[in-house]
Amino acid sequence: MSYITVHTANTNDPNSFSQKTISSTELEDVFLGYDWNAFLVKANIGINKDIYYEPPVKFENQSDKRALSFFPAGEPDSFGVITFYTRPKKIKKWFGLVTTFKEEYTTQTYEFIDLNDALSYVKAFADKNYDYLDKRVK
To answer: Degrees (nearest 5) of the Cα angle 46, 49, 52?
Structure first.
């Protein structure tokens, strides 16, 4: 079991965040317990005013420098999420001839996924099944 730092946006003010440390076994409950609809109501009002927000839910494993973030888009009760996955990674450039190491390499999904698919990412993150995340969040 590892400990994860959780950052969540306040649903009344999406610009303010709370942070706490939980065990990896609690990730699913935090993810499912977040009020995505309330965040979307406030965020959609802000987006119409050209205000942009950070992902409202972010899980960080400090011991291995990995993070998983989710950002919803759409209308309350009918939305999908984009997933961001950050980790240390060797990057190949120039047709594989040059390799560099990035401490915080981030990839994301470009299609919206539903909460059930996002939940499978949360479970993989909690179980440290990073191969699964590497294949899904490109």
So the answer is: 50
Q: End-to-end alpha-carbon separation of the chain, Å?
A: 26
Predicted model pTM: 0.85
> Contact at 8 Å (CB) between 121 and 133?
yes
Over its length of 138 residues, how does the chain's per-residue pLDDT go in tens digits?
Answer: 688 999 998 877 767 888 999 998 999 999 999 999 888 888 777 655 555 567 789 999 989 999 999 999 888 888 999 999 999 998 888 887 888 889 999 999 989 999 999 999 999 999 999 999 999 998
Are the C-beta atoms of 45 and 19 separated by less than 8 Å? Answer: no
